[in-house]
Amino acid sequence: MSDQRICILGLGYIGLPTSSILATKGYSVLGIDVNPDVVATINEGRIHITEPDLDLFVKAAVGSGKLRAALKPEAADVFIIAVPTPFKEGHKPDMTYVEEATKSIVPVIQKGNLVVLESTSPPRTCEAIIAPILAKSGLKVGEDIFVAHCPERVLPGQIMREVVENDRVIGGINAISSEKAKALYASFCKGQIFLTDATTAEMVKLVENSFRDVNIAFANELSIICDKLGLNVWELIRLANRHPRVNILRPGAGVGGHCIAVDPWFIVDACPKEARLIHSARIVNDDKPHRIIAHIENAAERFKHPTIGVLGLAYKQDIDDLRESPAVEIARHLKHKKCGELLVCEPYVTSHPEFTLFSLDEVIRRSDILVLLVPHTQFKNIDRELLKPKVVIDTCGVF
Q1: Exposure of 396 in the CB half-sphere (CA atoms within 13 A)
Q2: 91: in domain
């Protein structure tokens, strides 16, 4: 099967790792991105995102001639769509990128081709969006060309391993579509592959992340309750988790990332009257940054001209991914409200369009108030003696 040509649309956190792994398996891979700088970077054998070992895979794949990047799709045997699926105003799914990516392959699609949607999507995306667009090619979907959904389920920082090792769920618009997609993924996935229909596969990914969101919301709500009662939430959770069937997660600054902060809204949009618990969890987690902002503003009132040090902008520890990050939301509010001089430290990012970034040493030295928003390893190793003169607001339970 390695003589097959694969065209992957979207060269971000999912598309680029998948492209490089498929190329190392011997497939001829063409990666498509709308950003000319991304295309040029990859064709030079370099990467534009931070992910352990990805640079080695891309360099090897490009060097072997098995991976190249371009701005427009070309004829292929398999098309994999891995573009963003954000939400727009009112938490409505924005399927523009999926629609445009699908339209872009219509002029080059051929009989026998397989189209796989990896982008996390609302239920019935394959049936109601992908299939009708592809049908405009004149080919019959399910007979001449085949469509399936195979949602990614990887953890940033471990993508290169998990793309290969994780179990996969594949749902086709019909049985033959599922089987054709399974044959592709079985060529590079070591995990088990489970087949279902396309809409169930779409819901599986949404349910996985909604489950996590609800559990995080419980922890975040506990932190709010403990603040009201004057209790230590970390101690409370530690003791409650001694029960053999209790495993409460750790609260934080909120919920970020492209998955957990976004996917539950797709279910809420599809079933607004029925998804009451999922909706409530989203409200709790979206409200958490505002609770933290109130704490910071109260602390700032103790000083005439406070210097506020913000530790972390990423949505989780030890990565550079800022998508939907509650830490960015908090830092942005502090900057606009001018609560004091703002010093931001994010060791995994070299620059940011909104904030001047400072070294950890300078932030600690100059700040009156230190706000830990992301439990990066560097922050965990801070000498506690340096914190004693400061007002410390620890949202992660590190200190």
Answers
A1: 21
A2: yes
